[in-house]
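User: I'm curious whether this sequence folds into something compact or stays loose and floppy. Could you predict its structure so I can see for myself?
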Amino acid sequence: MTIPIKSVHPEAEYAAFLAEGRFMVQRSASTGEAVFFPRVAQPVTGRDDLEWVEASGAGSLYSFTVVRNKPPAADYIIALVDLNEGVRMMSRLIDCHPETLSIGMPLQARIGDVDGVPAVLFQPVEGASA
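Assistant: Here's the prediction. I'll summarize afterward.
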């Protein structure tokens, strides 16, 4: 399902979708190219025919780093994820340990929260390897 963009506040619309439990990305209606992070026009081309589409949530690990915190705060993993839609996004990895990760491994998104704010989180696909 596609949803035409009707305002000049794509970041707020993206946050509202996340609050509803929906992971949406934008794409150009004329070229079919996905766009991420939410914006009012496609980078490089300036096309403003962007529409919202449901993301598959599938992707692969491009890169990651571990953020080490002073106890009692927990460490966490920040990753760059290449979505199957053709865009790259930064997110957190959950339900995994850094030593089990490999570049290119398949990941799956889910909506969770970071510090009480809805966010897209990724976890390795069970049983898959890079």
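Summary: The chain has one helix and nine strands. Helices lie at 10-19.
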